[in-house]
Amino acid sequence: MCGLAVVFERAGLPTTTIALVREHAERMHPPRALWVPFGMGRPFGAPDAPALQRHVVETALGLLEQAGQDPLLVDFLQDAPTGDAREIWRPAAELSAGALPAEGAEPEALAEALRREAAVMLPRHAAAAAAHQRTTTGASGQSTESCVALVAGCLTGEDPPETPGGLSGGMLLKLAAEDIHAAWCEAAAHGSSPSADALASWYWRETAAGRAVRALNRRLEGHKNRRLRTLSDGLLVPGM
Amino acid sequence: MVRLNDLRESTQRALLDLDCPDYGPTRPVEGPPLAERTVAIVSTAGIHRRGDRPFSWGARDFREIGRHERDMVISHVSVNFDRTGFQQDLNTIWPIDRLEELAAGGHIGDVAPLGYSFVGATSPTEMETAAAEAATAMRAAGVGAVLLAPV
Fold this sequence. Notes:
The structure holds 2 protein chains of 2 kinds.
Chain A: H1 2-10, E1 15-19, H2 22-28, E2 32-35, H3 50-62, E3 72-75, H4 107-132, H5 144-155, H6 169-189, H7 196-206, H8 208-220, H9 226-231
Parallel strand pairs in A: 1-2, 2-3
Chain B: H1 9-16, E1 38-43, E2 47-49, E3 63-66, E4 72-74, H2 84-88, H3 96-104, E5 110-111, E6 114-117, H4 128-140, E7 143-149
Parallel strand pairs in B: 1-5, 1-6, 1-7
Antiparallel strand pairs in B: 2-4, 3-6
């Protein structure tokens, strides 16, 4: 981010930079930067918090009107609302598809649990998307149903298809896993205000999808295909 | 309040190990009052319009995002940042509606017809060619300020 600021300024474009990692701004000296105390992935504070988002934008743009030749690094000290913590927030009961296979269960059992969970989750996601008139699923270019089938298949020993001129198998599998994550989290967040940590904890620990993707990650660790093996190096499952 | 020390040790290490070339102080480009400037958003969140080709791993290119585009997805290589804020509200990472409000209120001159999206996991030096291309396009469009947003 700071590198782009330098390139743009050298091309004659005034910039103001949001900095999530203050240490990066200190090292790279963008001309104007506003350090914000928000979590990674939330540079403008929080969802559905327009007043806070606007305050961040106005403060960052305001740096453009401060005179001076030295790099400007200013701290934004207002915290963001976090949402309900993981100890408090629970997803709606209707999202449960029954008991989960144990950690370390056989891949076939996890794949079946994922399919069973999808039958519950997909209609809920469709309702959430209709209510919001928006969804962020679809980066894979596949329907979420197809993403579930792909992940379940790869979990039980298949490899993702390689399409000439299209996405690589590894990229397709990664984006399919992320589309499932988006669908599940959009469905779970609908009508409630979970914190980012609460949603992450629920998805990765308490859903068949999260457990299936984690198991898939383990399967890929020793895969003979280098690009598929690379997925297991932090590209499918966040550091937990 | 989230500071680097509050993050997982592995995340701290990854962030501190990122390639951060020392460009030295850059002389800030000045401009007219904000109320006379057209503002563009540039993000490194790896977002793009649904249907655009996803970003590849190590992507050095960018995607253009129209002023009125709201139907967006993410194909950033990293999964180590929260995506649920974006899932619930685009403005958490791409504050286009806030910019439109500022333009409507006369606080900024206008919103640029195009914004630009990169993938922040790519080394800054490897993005320089594409960044220069985006800069040329923004200057041609009369952009007078760039709001840079990481993820």
